[in-house]
Amino acid sequence: MKCISFKHCALLLAIAMGCPACKAPAESQTSSNEAQQAPQIFAEVPKFQAGRVMEGDKVEHRYLLKNKGNSTLHISKAKASCGCTAAVIGNSEIAPGAEGFIDVTFNSMGRRGHQVKTITVESDDPQNPRTFLTLEADVVVPVGFAQNKLHADLKVGEPWSYSVLIDEMTDETITLGEPGSDLEGLTAKLLPRTDGQKGALCELSYLPKTQGRLRTSVTISTGLERLPRISLPLFFDVAGDLQLTPAQLHLTPSEQMVSVRLSSETIDFEIQKIEDETNALQVKTVEITPKRAYELQFSLAPSQTEPKTFHGQVVIETTAPSAPKLQLPVSFRTATHAKSDRAHGLMRKDLKHFQDHPRSLKSPSEPFPMKKLAPQSKHRPVKSL
Fold it and tell me: Rounded CA gap, 107 and 137, in Å?
């Protein structure tokens, strides 16, 4: 009678139980077959460069998709990264070896500069469930100011003037109207350009009579249906006889009070009225130097207990001829955020627990027991070669 060795018994037992090592080749072969039978999406040209586009124009492009797999490809969704871009699926099912498409439309109205839009295509391709298509364009305005906005520091009684270019980037007929503004005393007129380029030169002039922060704009009609008018925002900081320090007010819940100084080195003045447009502040006026310097002490009103963020301004009316009304921008929170409140609440709870149970935490005189470690040699042993 032959004796069966331990190795033979182990091998027979593994075969009988179906060991993973024996199954691996079969499972690998099955996965490979499934991959060969699955659909495979392929975008021939996933990126499209639209080049230069006039604002207001629409860019339309068709992306071709091919199924390189051996079963039907199902496209479930095509979503653009921006609301200005729309994607429409042409073929939701693409047979093996066949082609489909996705139509994309980009609306450039309100967009300027270099634009990159991404379209995400979802399908049942197991190796590539998401395919990304890209559309790029450089949007320019047919006509517009060479600057997006204009900031200027002015002084009461000193005339100010500035010239800004108007560029025409199209061959369409453009008829520029007379410039207009809602700021009293601001004049604007159009002059021909001296550099030989298409467009015009807009010359602005203004004589500030009162100090403060002014915001206005200059608007010009164009005669174009898709862009009937163009505007240039203007921001003026006009200095005068009064100095407001700091020029903006920021108040946080941790601050009980914030002071603002209103003073003058040239004239006498008085504060007539202080109006808080946020209705969340209370202010106390302290005269530092008679008719020359005042301290405005701002704090949150006791009624403001709910967490809320405010942005607004405080209007200060004075007897100064050059500063009858001053605007003080303000921003603040009426309470801490919920997470901070929760953290502070836990800290207070832990403190109370420690006060009620002083032995629950070890004091410095009673340190936590430490596990004794075996002494180690200062020199590491050298391994023999």
Answer: 11
Cis peptide before 246 (omega within 30 of 0): yes
CA atoms of 352 and 358, how far apart (whole Å)? 10
Q: Select from 182, 173, 187 the least CA-distant residue to 222.
A: 173
CB-CB contact of 166 with 175 (8 Å):
no
Q: Which CATH superfamily is domain 143-239 in?
A: Cadherins (2.60.40.60)
Question: Distances from the Cα of 173 to the Cαs of 5, 37, 110, 168, 177, in angstroms?
Answer: 100, 59, 21, 10, 13
pTM for the model stands at: 0.59
Q: Tokens representing 123?
A: 């399908």
Task: Tell me whether the CATH fold assigned to 143-239 matches the one assigned to 242-333.
Answer: yes
Q: What are the sequence ranges of the domains in the chain?
A: 41-140, 143-239, 242-333
DSSP 129: S
SS3 135: strand
How high is the pLDDT of residue 217? Answer: 96
DSSP state of 336: -
Query: Is the Cα torsion angle 180, 184, 186, 189 positive or negative in sign?
Result: positive
Q: Which CATH superfamily is domain 242-333 in?
A: Immunoglobulins (2.60.40.10)
Assess if CATH 3.20.20.450 describes domain 41-140: no
- In angstroms, the Cα distances linking 4 to 10, 16, 44, 211 are 10, 16, 63, 107
For residues 276 and 327, give the distance between their C-alpha atoms in angstroms, rounded to a whole number.
Answer: 10
Share of the chain above pLDDT 70, in %: 78
User: Could you tell me what percent of the chain has a pLDDT over 90?
Assistant: 59
For the chain, give the number of residues: 385
